[in-house]
Amino acid sequence: MHYLSNDTIAAVATSQGTGGIAIIKISGPQAFEIVSRIFRPRHLTARGLTACDHQRLVYGHIVHPQTGVLDEVLVAVMCGPRSYTTEDVVEINCHGGAVVTQEILNLVITQGARPAQPGEFTRRAFLGGRINLAEAEAVIDLINAKTRKAARAGLQQLNNGIAQQINELQNMLMEILAEIEAYIDFDDDLEETLSISPLKQRMTSDILPVINGFISSFREGRILKEGLRLVIAGRPNVGKSSLVNRFLNQERVIVTAVPGTTRDIIEEMIDIDGLPVVVTDTAGIHRRPDPVEAIGIEKSEAAIAEADLVLFLIDGSEPLNSEDRQIYGQIKRQDHLVVQNKIDLCQGQPPPPTIEGLCTEEVVRISALTGDGLERLKEQIVLRLGLGIDPDGSRILVNLRQRKLLEAVQQHLDQACCYIGQTCEAELVAIEIKDALKAFQEILGQGVSEDVLDHIFERFCIGK
Ligand SMILES: Nc1nc2c(ncn2[C@@H]2O[C@H](COP(=O)(O)OP(=O)(O)OP(=O)(O)O)[C@@H](O)[C@H]2O)c(=O)[nH]1
Ligand SMILES: [Mg+2]
């Protein structure tokens, strides 16, 4: 893919479909000229749109040369470099109908603009030096956010998230490198009196803990981004599907008194305290399945293996049986919560389940039928995952590319510290630190290849 700085791109920036308004965004050197040819301002001026209109909204009409007026619009003008892309940008705010929007976009294209590729506006913002690559990645996370918490994490990353902290760490590391290089340049006889050992202390106490913190926050970041994989497992008829419906507040899944009702796994997105959660209903696991059930059970077991958290559901109105115990044996090594359902059928407190290795205090009691205990269950889900450590989200790593690069930094710095500890070979230490700095730079987008950029920006929508 080639990006010419001398071409002008255009796309609909708002989502497709009918809406109150839609925005067509045009960016590039011919943006003013192209729009001037098709825009008739209310107060007719001969000059067309120019830099004098910077940050102004101009009212008027879009006029097709053959068919006449297409729409009544407001046109926003932003001059480069003080615009999102750092180029000249015009945004046409038109009425939101899909037909009108498409007609205006087509007209803009016939006047010389090229349809924008996915993420091309943001790519230009990056290439123009307005944002770094970590910030561009935060833009897509913000757009894709499905819950309040995920959106907040995206916004924090954009404002003062990882990019700012990487800059600080990079500066600290450059100072350390400068001292090591000064040490290397000293005369041999001075080396005996000088030492680079204190630099190890600075790396291990000021830099590595921050990096390690980011790396270990990745699980939280992935959950914020993709949703927590919550799988409800248990033998047939314990109320798994009823609990899914209760979470969703609707009769989404079939519930009957017949054991073996759910045959296939069913996934739905829910929001627990601002956290995106993909809740999976599974087929009841039991010993003598028919061929259809056997396939369902196989899928259930695969979903359980992939889960971030398993809700092991048992029927509180009945004693536990060997099937319950067998399922518990399967899930107990994973993150799980034991949930005793149907407490509405019990007189007083249901008897605690007796399973070897199970701490009865940790059992959450609910009724999927009445909704009793559901809020406590949601609290336990959030608690169990240890989420919410960073309420503003600025220290949460959400991006796999960034994680891999931070792991590289971590390895190089560990190796540098190791060299300092062993032989004080300053040249080797310097090489490791330079490699760590290179990985830092890549996080911010310096020196990354076109392929990496293509891969990042193809995940964007057209118009962003
Ligand atoms: N009294 C009472 N009945 C419940 C409760 N939860 C579920 N049930 C009933 O238990 C029966 C089975 O519920 P389901 O939700 O279909 O159970 P399941 O675990 O999905 O069952 P399978 O799909 O067969 O594995 C239905 O008759 C539900 O109405 C509860 O909390 N209290
Ligand atoms: Mg079911």
Short descriptors:
binds magnesium ion; Gyrase A, domain 2; seven-stranded mixed sheet; 13 strands; 16 helices; 464 residues; flat; 3 domains; alpha/beta; six-stranded mixed sheet; Rossmann fold; Four Helix Bundle (Hemerythrin (Met), subunit A)
What does this 3D model show about the protein?
This protein is of the alpha/beta class. The chain has 16 helices and 13 strands. The strands form 2 sheets. Strands 3-4-5-6-2-1-7 form a 7-stranded mixed β-sheet, with helices on one face. The chain has a 6-stranded mixed β-sheet with strand order 9-10-8-11-12-13, with helices on both faces. β11 (309-315), α12 and β12 form a beta-alpha-beta unit. Residues 234, 236-242, 255-257, 259-262, 283-284, 341-342, 344-345, 367-369 line the site of guanosine-5'-triphosphate. Magnesium ion binds next to α10.
